[in-house]
Specification:
Elements (H helix, E strand, L loop, with lengths): L1 E8 L2 E9 L6 E7 L4 H14 L11 E3 L8 H10 L3 E3 L9 H13 L9 H17 L11 H5 L3 H23 L7 H9 L5
Parallel strand pairs: 4-5
Antiparallel strand pairs: 1-2, 2-3
Helix pairs in contact: 1-2
Length: 200
């Protein structure tokens, strides 16, 4: 999914063009641009595809966008068609069709943009870059089970969720033991909890 949001830089609006992977919520590409033409959008999409090796892949992702003039421009449609990509558009008057990327923009602005007064685009790019790095790699995301977008993107999320369940069961047993006046769990019981990893 690709979309554009306004960023105030020294009393002038710049345009954050971002591409998000809907499955993982990972920001796969972005650029802070002085304009928001179709060519600017095309450049960000092109970089995102190159970064993740999709140019040479026969299995290209679908790309979702709104109905803005940049997104519906003939040049952008021709570019995507030339790559063999399918593009989809949001339904009119249904902002929920772009909910994931709109939520990212809100998180970015609340966590970074609204706290700063950027004096130039270089300062703005640095602040946005650091926040996106944090968002992708260190911030657990509620919508994907409180793992980071990177963990979801790379398939680490299932292992992390299994470990959490095991740790939760272990903590429950400890509480039960303490409530009964016992303060140790025998090794056999600990091993049985660990073996649950295969069944969770």
């Amino acid at each position: 999914m690709v979309d554009i949001s306004y960023i105030l830089v020294n009393d002038k609006f710049w345009y954050l063009i971002a591409v998000i992977d809907l499955y993982s919520r990972y920001i796969v590409g972005w650029e802070l641009s002085s304009s928001m033409r179709a060519d600017d959008v095309k450049r960000v999409i092109d970089f995102s595809l190159l970064e993740f090796g999709f140019h040479e892949s026969g299995n290209k992702p679908r790309i979702h966008m709104d109905n803005g003039p940049q997104m519906t421009a003939k040049t952008l449609k021709a570019f995507l068609r030339g790559l063999g990509m399918i593009n989809e558009y949001s339904r009119p008057h249904l902002p929920q069709d772009s909910a994931e990327i709109e939520r990212f923009f809100r998180t970015l602005k609340q966590g970074e943009v609204y706290r700063e007064e950027y004096m130039d685009p270089y300062e703005a790019r640095d602040g946005i870059r650091y926040f996106i790095e944090y968002y992708n790699h260190r911030r657990p995301h509620q919508g994907i089970g409180f793992v980071t977008p990177y963990e979801r993107l790379t398939g680490q999320d299932e292992h992390i969720k299994k470990e959490r369940k095991i740790n939760s069961l272990y903590a429950q047993r400890i509480r039960m033991s303490k409530n009964k006046g016992l303060f140790l769990i025998c090794p056999e019981e600990t091993m049985s909890l660990i073996s649950l990893n295969k069944n969770i």
